[in-house]
């Protein structure tokens, strides 16, 4: 059982919890994944079993595509709908202002700061563990890139976007950045990873399929 599995991670589980369940289900010795997907998110999670875990480093570095639903007017400490509300605004962007900003985000490379609630390590400690204790530590910005940004839905106070991005991109940080550019606040309602390199959402397998399949 040395496989790369294109797995559908459900909402509510962390990437680590997901792979731990797969490990127990398949009775394998070693497992890993490429590219952390937040508990609030769902979609493509590339999983490697046993010797196939060696391929995960290269798979972590591939481009990814997301579909994100954004709620304007509310900001939370986690930058998503699961967090504590920290700010409310009744200023909503116009379709024209949003369209201009989306145009700017085509093939756009920039320095992005990870959210406080993230898996980034600071002196060996995950940032989210400190954030839970109300300890805010400055996180170093890092270069990333948006290859394509596409508007899927505009029904204020909610919009939906499709983002094709480089490795290391934080969608929750992007939501805050987008709102700030539009002089308001926002939070992430829903996130789906629809593609990771050549692995697509419509080709994923779920827990039930793994349990009933001998090929893994």
TrEMBL record:
Domain of life: Bacteria
EC number: 5.4.99.25
Pfam families documented for this protein: TruB_N (PF01509)
Record flagged with keyword Isomerase: yes
GO biological process: mRNA pseudouridine synthesis; tRNA modification
Reactions catalysed according to its record: uridine(55) in tRNA = pseudouridine(55) in tRNA
Keyword terms, alphabetized: Isomerase, tRNA processing
Domain Pseudouridine synthase II N-terminal: 23-171
UniProt keyword tRNA processing present: yes
InterPro entries tied to this protein: PsdUridine_synth_cat_dom_sf, PsdUridine_synth_N, tRNA_psdUridine_synth_TruB
Regions crossing the membrane: none
GO MF annotations in UniProt: RNA binding; tRNA pseudouridine(55) synthase activity
Protein family (similarity comment): Belongs to the pseudouridine synthase TruB family. Type 1 subfamily.
Protein name per its UniProtKB record: tRNA pseudouridine(55) synthase
Organism of origin: Mycoplasma amphoriforme A39
Native organism taxonomy: Bacteria, Bacillati, Mycoplasmatota, Mollicutes, Mycoplasmataceae
């Amino acid at each position: 059982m040395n496989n790369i599995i294109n797995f559908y991670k459900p909402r509510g589980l962390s990437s680590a919890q997901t792979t731990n369940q797969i490990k127990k289900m398949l009775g394998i010795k070693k497992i890993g994944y490429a590219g952390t997907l937040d508990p609030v998110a769902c979609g493509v999670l590339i999983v490697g079993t046993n010797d196939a875990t060696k391929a995960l480093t290269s798979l972590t570095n591939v481009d990814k595509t997301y579909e994100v639903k954004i709620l304007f007017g509310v900001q939370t400490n986690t930058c998503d709908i699961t967090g504590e509300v920290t700010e409310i605004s009744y200023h909503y962007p116009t379709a024209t202002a949003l369209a201009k900003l989306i145009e700017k985000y085509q093939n756009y490379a920039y320095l992005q700061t990870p959210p406080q609630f993230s898996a980034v390590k600071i002196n060996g400690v995950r940032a989210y563990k400190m954030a839970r204790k109300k300890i805010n530590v400055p996180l170093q910005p890092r270069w990333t890139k948006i290859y394509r940004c596409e508007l899927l839905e505009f029904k204020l106070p909610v919009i939906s976007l499709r983002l094709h991005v480089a490795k290391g991109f934080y969608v929750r940080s992007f939501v805050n950045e987008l709102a700030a550019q539009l002089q308001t606040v926002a939070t992430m309602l829903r996130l789906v990873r629809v593609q990771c390199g050549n692995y697509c959402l419509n080709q994923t397998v779920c827990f039930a399929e793994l349990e009933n399949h001998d090929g893994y």
